[in-house]
Amino acid sequence: MQRRKVIVAIRLKRLGSKRRPFYRIVVLDSRKRRDGAVLEEIGFYNPRAKDSEPEQCFKIDVEAAAKWLRNGAQPTETVRTLLVKAKVFEQLSA
Q: What's the pTM?
C-alpha cells in the first residue's frame, strides 16, 4: 500500500465580521478548505491595525514557523511577506 504525501501549507484563516477581517496564521493540509481544521495556529494578522503599532498588526511564533518551514510547509504569498517582516527566514539560514 502506497502512502500519500501530505502537502502542508501555511495560510491565513479568516475571522471577524463583515468588512472587518481578522486573520489567524495557520498550518494545515493544503487540500483542506481555508477555514477548515488546522494542524497548528502560529500567529495572527490584523490588516486594519495601524502600521505604527506593529505588535497589534501581526504576531508570529517564529520558532513554530521555522519548524514547519524546515519540514516542507509552503507559505502563501501574503504569509511569506509576513514571515519576511518577522525575520523567520533569517532564523532558517542561521
A: 0.85
